[in-house]
Amino acid sequence: MMNETGQWPGQAWLWLYTLWYQVGPIGSSDNADIMVFSIMIALTALLALVPFIPGLRSIPRWTRIYRLIWRNHYREVEGRSGGGGTSGSPPQVEPASPDPQPVGV
After folding, report:
1. Between the CA of residue 75 and those of 45, 70, 80, 87, 97, what are the distances in Å?
2. How far apart are CA 65 and CA 63, in angstroms?
3. DSSP per position, 54-104
4. CA angle 59, 12, 56 (to 5 degrees)
5. Among 81, 102, 75, 79, which Cα is nearest to 93's?
6. How far apart are CA 55 and CA 39, in angstroms?
7. Cα–Cα distance list, 97 to 5, 94, 100, 105 (Å)
8. What phi and psi, each to the nearest 5 degrees, are found at residue 11?
């Protein structure tokens, strides 16, 4: 049994798997299933290992795409705190005092 959405048959997540059968050398191969399975295993392993690959895990920091995604949040936080920071930067946390004062003294 499959859930179909609109005019498209099958599950939406199957497009990535079936995409490889449209590639000429893979689609016409006798071992197409093994090749597609191998490619999907490699891509899944790469996705799972992204946090552990030093160059790949640093790409968001280099491209600073997070600033586009979180810009409204940073504006709201700056608006509540009275501004004072640079637009688009994360709010700064004030360090705790090294010697806390005892309560009631």
Report:
1. 37, 9, 9, 7, 27
2. 5
3. HHHHTHHHHHTHHHHHHHHHHHHHHHHHT--S-TTSPPPPPPPPSSPPPTT
4. 10
5. 81
6. 22
7. 58, 9, 6, 17
8. -80, 145
The one-letter amino acid at 24? G
pLDDT above 70 covers what percent of the chain? 66
DSSP summary character for residue 21: G
Tokens 């895990």 found at? 57
The two tokens of residue 31 are 């071992």
Note the pLDDT tens digit of each residue in 71-96. Answer: 888 888 888 876 555 555 555 656 65
Give the whole-angstrom CA distance, residue 47 versus residue 94: 36
Which residues lie below 8 Å from residue 89, measured CB to CB, with a gap of 6+?
74
Question: Would the pTM of this model clear 0.70, i.e. be above it?
Answer: no
* Residue that is written with structure tokens 């968001």 in the block: 60
